[in-house]
Structure formats: C-alpha cells, structure tokens
Fold:
Amino acid sequence: MHCSMKLKTEKFRISEIFHSIQGEGIKAGLPCVFVRLQGCNMNCSWCDTKHAIPPKKGIGMSREQIICEVEKYECNFIEFTGGEPLYQPNIHCLMKYFCDNGYDVSIETNGHYDISAIDARINIIMDIKCPGSKMIHKNNYKNIEFLKPKDEVKFVIASDEDFDFAIDLVNKHHICNKTPNIVFSPAFGSMPAERLANLVLSSGLPVRMQLQMHKFIWHPDKRGV
Structure:
C-alpha cells in the first residue's frame, strides 16, 4: 500500500508532542517540536522516559491530528523520538510527509531496528547501547554501515567500563569514517560530567561530549520539555 493511502487510515500511538529546546546532539539549543512515540523494545537501566515504554499506553492519533499538533508551533525542526519510533513500522510514511513539506526532520532510534529504510533526508541519531544499559545484547551493528556523514551516533556512558566499550567499538567499526558526529553523554546521576570530560580528553579521539541541556534548564524529571 502506498504511503499516502496508509496515512489516511493509520493510527499512531503517541506519548506526547511538545515544543522545546533541543537539549542534545549537534543541534542542541535549537527550538524543536518533539513527537514522542509510545512503545519500546528496550528497557535501559538509566532510561528517563519510562512512561513511553509500554506500547498500549499513550494516545491513538491519526496522521491529520499529528500534523495539526505539529503545525501549531510554527517550528521547522521536528524530531521523532520515543520510546522507539521504529517500533511503529508506518512511522516511515509519516516522517516522509514532513520531509516532503519542507521540515528539517530527525529521528532518535535505539539502534536495534534496521535504519536502512529511513528517508535519506532525515538526520538519524542512533544510540549504541553500552553494558551499563543492560541492553547491549540488542545492539544491531549492521546499522553502522548505513550511517550518513550528517548522522549522529550516541553512547550513554554510565561507568568507566561503558567508556572503554564505546571507545573500542568506535575503533573496531571505524565509526569516525562514517560520521564525524560521535557523541558521548554521561548517564544522568551515574557518571560525573567532569570524569567523562577527562576520559574523553585522554582518549585522543574526535568524539563530542554532551550534557543534556534540558535537564539543567528544567527539573530533570519534568516531562514535555
């Protein structure tokens, strides 16, 4: 079935749609509309969006309802996040709609589902899970070959072990040759930012350290920001 026909009948499970400051990655600081989809195939130990994991929660929304909600913010930058956006297969059609209509579109994905079918216009932010997440067994390393230079690879670092794992993986898979946007983020409340900064400096690799900006602007547990 063609995408346009699918979107007329498709219902998406949505956790929340909100307008905020992008707090992470190479576009941190930009106003962004976040479409947080409900449902995830992982349960990371440090997850800060537990409410978006159960697939049967959230709100059923049509394509038209989602578009209407996004358009009211008059913001050209949109990110699909979760949960896990690719948990809902027809998300590809919805993202294509926004690309076709001039939006700057990003998707943050946990790295398990195949990313090869994602529209080439979309900026992919792909997580690779470290041991501290307890989800390392769900990493799909085949996805690395489909990364584009503009995409991002994110490692959430909860310990020195996680850092060593991430560095080894960057080197083993030559990720620096796929994209210059390799981001190391300290797991909030687990890895001290200063400790991670020193580890990054000592690595000699051109990786980017980030802090979750929104957790410093608003309360770390606040939703919809």
